[in-house]
Amino acid sequence: MAKKGQYTYEYPHPAVTADSVVFGYDGKELKVLLIKRGAEKEASTTAYAGEWALPGGFLDVEKDKTIAYTAKRELKEETGLRLSEKEFKEFGTFSDIKRDPRERVITIAHYALVKLTEVQADTDADKAEWFSLKEVPSLAFDHDKILRDAFSRLKQDIHFQPVGFELLPEIFTLPQLQNLYESILEVKFDRRNFANKMKHYGILSEVEDGTPRHGTRTPIKYRFDKENYDRLKGNGFRLEF
Amino acid sequence: MAKKGQYTYEYPHPAVTADSVVFGYDGKELKVLLIKRGAEKEASTTAYAGEWALPGGFLDVEKDKTIAYTAKRELKEETGLRLSEKEFKEFGTFSDIKRDPRERVITIAHYALVKLTEVQADTDADKAEWFSLKEVPSLAFDHDKILRDAFSRLKQDIHFQPVGFELLPEIFTLPQLQNLYESILEVKFDRRNFANKMKHYGILSEVEDGTPRHGTRTPIKYRFDKENYDRLKGNGFRLEF
DNA sequence: ACAAAAGTGTTAGGCCTACACCCATGA
DNA sequence: TCATGGGTGTAGGCCTAACACTTTTGT
Question: A189: Cβ under 7 Å from strand C?
Answer without folding.
Answer: no
